[in-house]
Specification:
The protein is mainly beta. It is 10% helix and 63% strand. The model has no long low-confidence stretch (mean pLDDT 87). This is PorT family protein. Pfam families: OMP_b-brl_2. Keywords: Signal. InterPro entries: Beta-barrel_OMP_2, OMP/PagP_B-barrel.
Amino acid sequence: MKKSILIIAILFIGATSFAQNSNNVQLGVRGGANFATVAGDDYDSPDSRTSFYLGLLAEAPLSDHVSLQPEVYYSGQGFDVDNAQFKVDYIQVPLLLKFYIADGLNIHAGPQFGFKVNEEFDFDPNEDSGSFDTDSVNDFDFQGAAGVEYKFPSGFFIQGRYSYGFSEMVEDVDVHNSVFSAGLGFMF
């Protein structure tokens, strides 16, 4: 866990330091809903777990229509199965390249590095009892992320994004994170 926090800090500080050397860097916050499940040959499409994400970002313009955007955020993920939830929560660190295709409208994509911070199986998701910690999911998940965003002149933005885990969640099992997210944010 200490290694994960150190790696997260180094990645975000490095990307933010790069961003601060650019002109017109904006810092912001983002949050919203996750609709997470898993995909792969070794697991039969469980229901999605609805959770949330919340975090920080920096946007550094590289040209008039291209920006680099490092982020760090908490992401509730996992899936639902037979009236129970398998919760796997991460600190996500994406490094996105944004392409503005019209005023305020952009598409973005890039690698995302996920560091597991919580894993539990909850037999009674509506109560505080019925859950137990597990330790079967890998601590690190390499993912790809892509999305669309509209940024208003006031600094508020809305966005939708999809991320897919290229790493196996469990060693030697073909099961990968698959997350759709939708949310709001504000650039300062």
